[in-house]
Amino acid sequence: MPIRNLWSLEPGECIVAEEIFDKLKDLEVFFPVHDVGVDLLVVKGKKHVGIQVKESRYYIGRTWKSGHVGHSWQQIKKVKFDGNKGKVDFYVFLTYLPIQANTR
Predict the structure, then answer these.
(1) pTM to 2 decimal places
(2) Domains in the chain: how many in total?
């Protein structure tokens, strides 16, 4: 059984866990030790919720007809989506926005 490196978790998982922990009181947030299809387990009493976090960055370079510039995307293969039924209760999609200085 491959064990996750708990000292180098995915940044998005940590960001979502911190937001949940800060905004929703009386909850516990857990990271699974190995990959079971759930990134975070949120527990309150005897109730629990499995969360899958999907991360992407924002890509600048394409101008859409609406004048909007840029895009991002996350992908979930149907096989993985169907395979996580009963484990994952929520998907969180996280997009990183780049910050540009005057010097790019």
Answers:
(1) 0.74
(2) 1
